[in-house]
Amino acid sequence: MQSQTTLKRHAALVDNMAQAYGVDLEEQMLRGKLSMSDLEDAVLGCTACKSVEKCEHWLEAQTATATDTPAYCRNATLFRALKQD
């Protein structure tokens, strides 16, 4: 089981990556496009990523809405699906 600190870190990364890509996760949940279970799975998937530091640096470097997520992002498919809606 992941520590609370780890889960919070990755929850923030998931939210920041979605925002960088132009996806508002809260709005998607309110619209019924994203369930709490889906969000939990996204955070857990993020905790297994081997590129956390790369991700953090990529996010820090973003100054505008990104046209795509990094290739290593475990939630890229989810974010693309949410952006299409």
From TrEMBL:
InterPro entries: DUF6455 (IPR045601). Pfam families: DUF6455. Residues 1-84 form the DUF6455 domain. It comes from the Bacteria. This is DUF6455 domain-containing protein. It comes from Antarctobacter heliothermus.
